[in-house]
Request: fold
Amino acid sequence: MSEYVKSLVAHVKAKNPSEMEFHQAVEEVVESLGVVLDRHPEYRSARILERIIEPERVIMFRVPWMDDQGEIHVNRGYRIEMNSAIGPYKGGLRFHPSVTLGILKFLAFEQVFKNSLTTLPMGGGKGGSDFDPKGKSDNEVMRFCQSFMSELFRHIGPDTDVPAGDIGVGGREIGFLFGQYKKLRNEFTGVLTGKGLNWGGSLIRPEATGYGAVYFASEMLATRKETLEGKICLVSGSGNVSQYTIEKINQFGGKVVTVSDSNGYIYDEEGIDAKKVAFVKDLKNVRRGRIKEYAEKYPKAVYTAVDPKSNYNPLWNHKAQCAFPSATQNEINGKDAQNLLKNGVYCVAEGANMPTNLDGVKIFLDAKILYGPGKAANAGGVATSGLEMSQNSMRLSWTREEVDNRLHQIMKNIHQTCAQTAERFGTPGNYVNGANIGGFLKVADAMMDQGLV
Ligand code: NDP
Reply:
């Protein structure tokens, strides 16, 4: 690490104490950028990096709401408007009790580079709340979403900031948020993405992140003249990203043997076929149950509960060739990364954001496996959100095939950008450098063009 990069990381840590995930995300990116700054001293003198790590705006607000028993609760809402150099702020909303300012800042920071890689004109943002939708009634979720939007509406707009879903924010929540925005503003615009199909949503948006991660993995495998056909795959999570990752792996002839939620994981040696995926979708999206029920329905599958004392995740300790972490940040540590390699995994495509910690990333890079970091591999979600914005602006809807073809092409382009950029900057095969540098250059050049704002 150069002295400059070291001092920048130290500065971020000192200025944002206790925001560990933000430190981690910045460290990973700026390490990749050392070589760029050596070749382009103009970025350094314009203080582009110092500006990129400082959000343009952070909005933090009170979200009071009433439960079905008439009790009052107060949560905290956030929107991080990180960077608008190449387009309106764009990024999801996360509702989860673990949400903090630091987690949302890491997500917003990652989003800036990811959105740039999609080639679409979108800046980076992220938001959410420490509200936990689990165990709440539909009416409670609606009242929370309405209260959340009652503040957020004054900061967003189709040309300013366009939020979407993330953990805990799916079609139901986007509906309630959109309804409240429309009522307060008295306008029907493409202010949110992930909308319902009959009120402005795009076909393939629900599938996009998972499908995109699998398209990205296929592109990585193609560099070794391989496909997903016959590959055994480990997938974590059982939400939006996981469900459609499994669906697409099955379509490509792979076999998925794991799925999980925050309480535990399932190992199903026979494979999670289309019928079982339909069961998971119903369990998680309709009945909102726990993944444990999978083993009750399919008794040959084995359920293992999370052991909070364990220093590794047993899900990553099964024989396989590919892994698709699709739950949350830091779900693969150094020991997990070693276990994956030991069990034969040589292709990792991250559906989740920053699921691998810095130790794990180093282990994957040193082993020279096909490692697609989240900001490249999971960019299909936001790319399709960008396509939803285009359709809203044109007041048109594209067919499923048209959106899927565009998504597939975007994932191929992102892969190519990452591979070519890594090569151009002296680290062929390193998709981490490729994604960080590729994403950075476009934003940095836009910031240079737009002056000191
Ligand atoms: P969902 O809420 O639909 O699903 C999240 C899944 O991950 C659930 O199975 C959940 O389990 C599990 N999970 C969440 N938090 C934890 C935790 N702390 N420990 C263990 N498991 C956990 O979210 P998504 O599928 O939309 O998002 C998954 C990941 O993908 C996130 O990292 C998100 O940022 C990223 N992503 C999502 C995009 C999208 O379009 N949705 C786009 C790009 C990235 P449980 O049911 O118990 O909560």
The chain has two domains: 3-188, 208-372. The mean pLDDT is 97. The chain is about 50% helix and 15% strand.
